[in-house]
Specification:
By secondary structure, the chain is α/β, with parallel strands linked by helices. The chain is built from 17 helices and 16 strands. The protein binds 3-methyl-2-oxobutanoic acid (KIV) and zinc ion.
Length: 511
């Protein structure tokens, strides 16, 4: 049987460290559940010592999941490790503390201000403390790629001696080349005397666009855990994209004779969920999950595809959770057809969610003849984004034109109470956002406003993305509606709801 490569997802930790990608508690739980459903082995849920919000997220996820292992990150500090242990205590799933310390001369000297001997002692102390709190401890050598090899080997040996059972070798700054990284993994495997007691892991950043290549090279040289994120989210240029690693392993068994526990048909759903939650749009030509990843535009390619799909296709869309069916929905389509279609698109909705999605679908179908896959994706993403909002759009009326100053009448539901106002502005979007500001006074500033048509045609839904900022905290929102201004209001309100959750109460936003 082929060796299993353990998938360690760090979308909720390293991914969340991308500027502008912060997520609410509810969103993190939703992503964690999706990762568990797809069969991810280890989910790094956060860094509990970093903030009360991170602590709560790790604790809630560890008390929600059943099968995936939940990892909590900690620096080599007592307070961090105890905080990680406390967040994981009483979990309903297997747990892990992931503790790290830098081993490169640069980091030891300038960042840590520690000698190599002090670093070795700190490794022993931190791993020993972590092992007193949980059975399963992972240790990472931060900036391992730029560390002196002999010292790195000693650090790894020390961590294993203290009880670490996973050793992670990060390319923290995305500096490595594939052959070099593979050679480092092989050298650790062959040199560290107690390496047989622990699993070797990769963690590659994408600064030179080589994160996935380096990860796979690590696997070919003995790593049996890979750290990665959905859509390659992560610090700076991101982390290794999980979907690319998994599909490379699935597609090239001749060169990569391994298996993973992940059900690849969940990939598209997870990608859309993460993109919807973070507002990080997936580029159309992104491998595996980009909108064009399975699109064949040129005549020659289309002709080849019709004759034999494998002429231009190395993996099937179905294998990543995309449907080949071009079934278009219309106003006579029923609830069962909608469920089938959404399942084919990679969404698994509860009965309650389906009931709401069906009502939204009917509302769009009354105005628009044909509903395409993209419409349904926008519809469900918007619904999910609005699921637990305290402030919601109730109604919006706008009059504007080339000669008149725009006028807006807006009603919001705020904690279940309907409140109304009127406003004007330089344009209809400005008037709409001003009206929201009258009902929900705040000082957040608009950092991003983006509109795109979900499908072709003038009857297409508009998908609007908004990013708001307040005192260094950002939140993004998205909305989809046939009416661009209604979509704008929904997106703005979603961002405001998230900011409110982050800043705790709207009073802070107003101050
Ligand atoms: O990139 C890195 O070195 C990390 C460690 C904390 C594992 O994210
Ligand atoms: Zn990292």
């Amino acid at each position: 049987m082929a060796d299993t490569i353990l998938i360690f997802d760090t979308t909720l930790r390293d991914g969340e460290q991308s500027p502008g990608a912060s997520m609410t508690l509810g969103e993190k739980v939703r992503i964690a559940l999706a990762l568990e459903a797809m069969g991810v082995d280890v989910i790094e849920a956060g860094f509990p010592a970093a903030s009360a919000g991170d602590f709560e997220a790790v604790s809630t996820i560890a008390h929600t999941l059943k099968t995936s292992r939940v990892a909590a990150l900690a620096r080599a500090k007592t307070v961090d490790i105890e905080s990680a242990g406390a967040a994981l205590r009483g979990a309903t799933c297997p747990t892990r503390i992931h503790t790290f310390l830098a081993t490169s001369p640069l980091h030891m000297k300038y960042k840590l201000n520690m000698t190599p001997d002090q670093v070795l002692s700190a490794i022993t102390e931190s791993v020993t403390l972590a092992r007193s709190l949980v059975e399963d401890v992972e240790w990472s050598a931060e900036d391992a790629v730029r560390s002196e090899r002999d010292f790195l080997f000693r650090a790894v040996e020390t961590a294993i001696k203290a009880g670490a059972r996973t050793i992670n070798i990060p390319d923290t700054v995305g500096y490595a080349m594939p052959l070099e990284y593979g050679d480092l993994i092989a050298a650790i495997k062959n040199t560290v005397p107690n390496m047989d007691l622990a699993v070797l892991s990769t963690h590659c950043h994408n600064d030179l666009g080589l994160a996935v290549a380096n990860t796979l090279s690590g696997v070919q040289n003995g790593a049996r855990q890979v750290e990665c994120t959905i859509n390659g989210l992560g610090e700076r240029a991101g982390n290794a994209a999980m979907e690319e690693i998994i599909m490379a392993i699935k597609t090239r068994p001749d060169l990569l004779p391994y298996r993973t526990n992940v059900d690849t048909t969940h990939i598209m759903g997870a990608s859309r969920l993460v993109s919807g939650v973070t507002g990080f749009v997936v580029q159309p030509n992104k491998a595996i999950v980009g909108a064009n990843a399975f699109a064949h535009e040129s005549g020659i390619h289309q002709d080849g595809m019709l004759k034999h799909a494998q002429t231009y296709e190395i993996m099937t869309p179905e294998s990543v959770g995309l449907s080949r069916s071009s079934l278009v929905m219309g106003k006579h389509s029923g609830r069962a057809a909608l469920r089938d279609k959404l399942t084919a698109l990679g969404y698994r909705l509860s009965d309650e969610e389906l009931t709401e999605a069906f009502a939204r679908f009917k509302a769009i179908a009354d105005k628009k003849k044909q509903i395409f896959d993209e419409d349904l994706i926008a519809l469900v993403d918007a619904q999910r984004g609005q699921a637990d909002e305290a402030i919601r759009l109730h109604s919006l009326h706008v009059t504007c034109g080339t000669t008149d100053r725009p006028e807006v009448r807006l009603a919001l539901s705020i904690n279940g109470q309907i409140k109304e106002t009127q406003s004007t502005g330089t344009g209809p979007v400005d008037a709409t956002f001003r009206a929201i500001g009258q009902l929900v006074p705040h000082q957040a500033t608009l950092q991003l406003y983006q509109v795109h048509a979900v499908t072709q045609g003038t009857d297409a839904q508009a998908e609007v993305t908004v990013r708001l900022e307040h005192n260094g905290t950002t939140a993004h929102g998205s909305g989809a509606n046939i009416d661009t201004l209604a979509a704008s209001a929904e997106a703005y309100l979603q961002a405001l709801n998230k900011l409110q959750a982050k800043v705790q109460r709207i009073g802070c936003l107003a101050g």
